[in-house]
Structure formats: C-alpha cells, structure tokens
C-alpha cells in the first residue's frame, strides 16, 4: 500500500513546487512591471481599449545653425483621464503616438532644452534642464495639450517640477523597458525603448546611462534561478524524507 502512496505523492509534490516557482516568478515580474495605477476618482474610469505598444520614433532638434543638439528615440503612449462629453463620466483613454504622423520641433539653450511633438490635436512638450555645476541633466517638465474627440474643450496637463531621466552631460539616458511617468493626477506618459540626450550632443548618442529598471532586470533571472535551486533542493529533500517515511510505514499527505 505504501509504495502506491509514494508514487502518488512524488508527482503532486513536483507539480506543487512547479506552481510555487511559477507564482514566485509571476510575483517578481509583477513587482517590476509598472502596475496600472487607477486614480481614485468618484466614478471609476471606464476601462480603456488598450492599444498595443507604440512604435518607436526618432526625434532630433537642431539649433539655429542646423547642428543637431537634442536626440531622442522612443515609443510614446499617453494615458489620460477626462470627463467625457458624451457620457458625463470620467473615462480613461490610452493613446499611442504614431511617429510617421508626429511633427517634431524644439529648442536648445545652454541650460535648458525642449522637444515638442505634435500629432493631430495633441501636443506633447518635454523640458530638460541642465545643472552646469553638477553637469547633470533631467526631464524637469512635461506638458500635454490635447483636444480629444469626446473632450468638452482642449485640456492642458502640465507639471514643471518633475525629476525624470537623470543623466550626466555628454551621456545619453536609456530605458529599454516600459516606464510609466506620472505627470499629473490625470495624465501619465508611458515610454518604451527610450534613449534621449538633451545636452552635449556630438553627432550621435553618447555612452548610455541605463535606468534603474533596466539594471533591476538583470537581477530577476538571478533571483528566479536561486529560488528554483532552493525549490529543487526542497523537492529532493521531500522525496528522500518521504521515501524514508514510507519505508518506516508512515503515510505522508
Ligand atoms: C549650434 O551648435 C553648434 C555645436 O554645438 C555650435 O557650434 C553653434 O554655435 C550652435 N549655434 C547656435 C546658433 O547656437
Ligand atoms: C465618444 O462618445 C461616443 C458617444 O457619443 C462613443 O460612441 C465613443 O466611443 C466615444 N469615443 C471615445 C474615444 O471615448
Ligand atoms: C481636432 O479638433 C477639432 C476641433 O476641436 C475637431 O474638429 C477635429 O475633429 C479634431 N481632430 C482629431 C483628429 O481629433
Ligand atoms: C546644481 O547642483 C549642485 C551640486 O549638486 C547643487 O548644489 C545645486 O543646488 C544644483 N542647482 C540647481 C539649480 O538644482
Ligand atoms: C508634479 O510632479 C511631482 C513629482 O512627481 C508631484 O509631487 C506633484 O504632485 C506633481 N504636480 C502636479 C500638479 O501634479
Ligand atoms: C537624427 O540624428 C541621428 C544622429 O545624428 C541620425 O542618425 C538620424 O537620421 C536623425 N533622424 C532624423 C529624423 O533626422
């Protein structure tokens, strides 16, 4: 009787371990993927028809003498909450920018640079600042002006005290993973496969400084690997203990 029990126990133990490993993996992945933060509004925003990831565009800004002074390569997705004129309820809209339809412009000054992207009735402005003492730059402002079909009127979302995309003069800032940048309560910008250099451009991107997310990404395989190794050990131990017990006449569950 006990040999039969043993044979049933071992596979179910292995399946349990596998499920545990999968759930650990999912937990880890969930930690890294920016979770969808739905702002607490009175009426829950209608769930948006989420488009796929946006296409990556290349946007350059040239200075008055036609020298490229800002380089940007990124896919952009806008997440906007607004009160729909048709339903009177707060709705959330997720929109991708389409590089082929985007017109880009901007300006470069010694300690500030802007990139302006316009597609249809949407204008998105990035403002970068350079601290010439520390030679560090960052994305200090984002402004979205949008007139979407169901908006009652053109709406502007602006934040000039941001601190995103921190990089060193002469280097580019890179973030391959999707990153969600919260701008205001009702607007956040999702960036994909991003590389920017707002200052000190010398023909092409300087050496890349990667975002935390990309660095963290390297940790996941290590953590998962370690967790799996521990689980394998547990399974082997459980098997050995189970075998000893069944020899001794115990029935494990
Ligand atoms: C444009 O950039 C180049 C290279 O940095 C510089 O030599 C030139 O003076 C700039 N032009 C203006 C009008 O700032
Ligand atoms: C705009 O409102 C109409 C109803 O008037 C609705 O059918 C449509 O889905 C809405 N569009 C968006 C983008 O929410
Ligand atoms: C842009 O806005 C105008 C006026 O608000 C509207 O008539 C037009 O349909 C909009 N275009 C798009 C592509 O949303
Ligand atoms: C620039 O960096 C220096 C050194 O890190 C810091 O003391 C200063 O406050 C910064 N200036 C601005 C305008 O942020
Ligand atoms: C602007 O961004 C900062 C930093 O993310 C945030 O603390 C602040 O509340 C934002 N301001 C507005 C008007 O949303
Ligand atoms: C932007 O600049 C880069 C590097 O100078 C160049 O390879 C690329 O073709 C430019 N793209 C556009 C759209 O001008």
From TrEMBL:
Residues 220-251 form the Lysosome-associated membrane glycoprotein 2-like transmembrane domain. It is a single-pass type I membrane protein. It is found in: Cell membrane; Endosome membrane; Lysosome membrane. Residues 1-29 form the signal peptide. It comes from the Eukaryota. InterPro entries: Lamp2-like_luminal (IPR048528), Lamp2-like_TM (IPR048524), Lysosome-assoc_membr_glycop (IPR002000). This is Lysosome-associated membrane glycoprotein 1b. Belongs to the LAMP family. The chain crosses the membrane at residues 218-241. Residues 45-54 have a biased composition (Pro residues). Keywords: Cell membrane, Disulfide bond, Endosome, Glycoprotein, Lysosome, Membrane, Signal, Transmembrane, Transmembrane helix. The keyword RNA-binding does not apply. GO terms for cellular component: late endosome membrane; lysosomal membrane; plasma membrane. Its main location: membrane. Residues 35-58 are annotated as: Disordered. GO terms for biological process: establishment of protein localization to organelle. Residues 54-201 form the Lysosome-associated membrane glycoprotein 2-like luminal domain. Gene3D superfamilies: 2.40.160.110.
């Amino acid at each position: 009787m006990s040999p039969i029990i043993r044979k049933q126990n071992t596979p179910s133990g292995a399946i349990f371990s596998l499920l545990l490993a999968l759930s650990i993996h999912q937990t880890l992945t969930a930690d890294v993927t920016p979770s969808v933060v739905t702002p607490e509004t009175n009426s829950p925003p209608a769930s948006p028809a989420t488009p796929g990831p946006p296409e990556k565009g290349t946007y350059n800004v040239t200075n008055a003498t036609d020298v490229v002074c800002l380089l940007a390569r990124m896919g952009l997705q806008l997440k906007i909450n607004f009160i729909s004129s048709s339903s009177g309820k707060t709705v959330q809209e997720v929109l991708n920018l389409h590089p082929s339809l985007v017109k880009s412009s901007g300006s470069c000054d010694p300690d500030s640079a802007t990139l302006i992207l316009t597609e249809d009735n949407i204008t998105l402005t990035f403002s970068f600042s350079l601290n010439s003492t520390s030679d560090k730059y960052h994305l200090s402002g984002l402004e979205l002006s949008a007139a979407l079909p169901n908006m009652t009127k053109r709406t502007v979302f602006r934040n000039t005290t941001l601190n995103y995309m921190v990089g060193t003069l002469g280097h580019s800032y890179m973030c391959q993973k999707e990153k969600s940048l919260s701008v205001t309560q009702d607007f956040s910008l999702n960036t994909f496969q991003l590389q920017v250099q707002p200052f000190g451009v010398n023909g092409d991107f300087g050496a890349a400084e990667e975002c935390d997310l990309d660095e963290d990404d390297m940790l996941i395989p290590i953590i998962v690997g370690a967790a799996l190794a521990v689980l394998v050990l547990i399974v082997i131990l459980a098997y050995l203990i189970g075998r000893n017990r069944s020899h001794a006449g115990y029935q494990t569950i």
